[in-house]
Design goal:
Shape: elongated
CATH topology of the largest domain: Chorismate lyase
Oligomer: single chain
Radius of gyration: 21 Å
CATH class of the largest domain: Alpha Beta
Mean pLDDT: 77
Order of helices and strands: HHHEEEEHEEHHEHEEE
Number of domains: 2
Strand order of the largest sheet: 4-5-6-9-8-7
Strand content: 25-35%
Number of strands: 10
Low-confidence stretches: 94-104, 253-283
CATH superfamily of the largest domain: Chorismate lyase-like
Structural class: alpha+beta
């Protein structure tokens, strides 16, 4: 492979050396510098270029292999590019737009890992939305999750709901469970509409660690309030999206007569195998 062209590591950063190496290699694959089938520099070359230990280089390569961005082929020395995975798409319709997306079998197209779940005192800004009818003391059901596209972490989301929805937790432990589909199916509550706001922010250290990016990395935050048929707010959510893995787009067309919980969930088309990015015309 040609002479390496990586930016120097930031030795003053709190990000581990292996993480910085992983991101450097990932960026070269994503921007097309290295194509599918290209052989990566050897571990020794990477160690020399970054002035890093073999342990750090191996950890970086192991993470990339787990994300299916590179592979180590039996009988061949070194690692090879498997192909840049362009971002999947989260299409937000102009009616209710939820993170309870569906795949062909009616379950979530993303997988979820629960980081925190239970009844606790709601933050004041969440209580102001779903709190007026909350239980005494301002307690509510808080659900914090990390969501992934395949093996790639893409979204961190926290939902704040009335405490009565805590009974849904058993159903939500399924990694492919859709929150709003579960609310409809188990609690009999239909999401009638949603208000949302979208903004760009910089990831703080905690969020950067969760989303596997550097502190200060730009991300998109989608805040949403879901309302039931009676116009009562039943959920306030804040989703932080890594848009190099999950592109957010908005669809302004919908049937004014109403949208089912499935079509209101937003669409996550699966990128074609080997595709470098999702063709916007296919949405």
């Amino acid at each position: 492979m040609s002479t390496l062209a990586f930016p120097p590591l930031d030795r003053s950063s709190t990000a581990p050396i292996w993480f910085q190496i992983m991101r450097a290699i990932e960026s070269r694959i994503s921007d097309g510098t290295w194509m599918t089938g290209d052989r990566l520099p050897s571990e020794s070359e990477l160690c020399a270029h970054f002035a890093a230990s073999r342990t750090s280089v191996r950890e970086a390569l192991s993470r990339l292999e787990s994300a299916h961005m590179i592979s180590r082929r039996q009988g061949s020395k070194g690692a090879f590019v498997e192909g840049a995975q362009g971002p999947s798409a989260w299409t937000l319709p102009s009616a209710p737009s939820l993170l309870g997306e569906y795949s062909e079998d009616g379950r979530s197209a993303l997988t979820s890992q629960i980081l925190r779940a239970g009844v606790e005192i709601l933050p004041s800004w969440a209580a102001a939305v779903v709190g007026p009818r909350a239980e005494i003391g301002g307690a509510g059901f808080v659900l914090e999750r990390v969501r992934a596209v395949g093996t790639r972490t893409a979204v961190h989301v926290i939902n704040y709901m009335p405490a009565r929805f805590a009974g849904l937790l058993a159903d939500l432990r399924d990694p492919r469970a859709s929150l709003y589909a579960t609310i409809t199916r188990v609690a009999g509550v239909r999401i009638a509409r949603m208000h949302r706001s979208i903004e760009a922010v910089s990831a703080d250290r905690t969020l950067a660690s969760i989303l596997e990016v550097e502190a200060g990395h730009p991300i998109v935050v989608v805040e949403a309030v879901a309302y039931d048929d009676n116009g009562e707010p039943i959920d306030f959510s804040r989703a932080s999206v890594r848009t190099d893995r999950l592109r957010v787009s908005v669809d302004t067309g919908f049937d004014a007569a109403g949208i089912s919980s499935q079509s209101a969930s937003g669409r996550y088309p699966v990128p074609l195998e080997g595709s470098r990015a999702l063709d916007p015309s296919s949405r």
